Amino acid sequence: MDNKELAKCSGFEWDKGNAEKIWQKHKVSPFECEQMFFNRPLIADVDEAHSQKEPRFYVLGQTDMERKLFAAFTIRKNLIRPISARDMSRQEREVYDNHEEQNP
After folding, report:
1. CB 80 within 8 A of CB 58
2. d(Cα 60, Cα 29) in Å, to the nearest integer?
3. Dmax over Cα atoms in the chain, in whole Å?
4. Distance between CA atoms of 68 and 91, rounded to whole angstroms?
5. Mean pLDDT for the stretch of residues 63-74
6. What DSSP letter does each residue of 49-62 carry, written as one string?
7. Does 67 score more than 80 pLDDT?
8. Where are the alpha helices (DSSP H) in the chain?
9. Closest C-alpha to 12, from 85, 84, 79
10. Is 42 in a helix, a strand, or coil?
11. Contacts of 30 (CB under 8 A, 6+ apart)
């Protein structure tokens, strides 16, 4: 995924059920999830395994408080629609940290 595609987005669209599920299961607030899209580095890619009905994407990023998060989302009408968000796994943190070192 090209970050230019994200730059075309003008905001977020939350499904109330997804927002509640993400909070209950992973304690990630919608505010934290949205915040990570504005911080750098942000690693974004296509989630081909889950893109049967519509294109899905994922990002690795961090909040203003440096909480490292993974989020899955789709884009509808230039709005980012989060599907899930959680803390990065150890393997995802390694990818994120190595990317940060290579692209300061």
Report:
1. no
2. 16
3. 38
4. 12
5. 97
6. GG-SSS--EEEEEE
7. yes
8. 3-7, 16-26, 30-36, 90-102
9. 79
10. coil
11. 12, 14, 19, 22, 23, 82
Q: Per this entry, what is the length of the chain?
A: 104
Residue 99 and residue 101: Cα distance in Å, rounded?
A: 5
Phi, psi of 84 (to 5 degrees): -155, 160
- Among residues of the chain, what percentage have pLDDT more than 90? 80
Amino acid of residue 17? G
Closest by CA position to 67, among listed 44, 45, 96, 46? 96
**Which amino acid makes up residue 75?**
I
- Nearest CA to 75 out of 93, 40, 51 is that of 51
What is the C-alpha separation between 100 and 48, in angstroms, rounded? Answer: 24
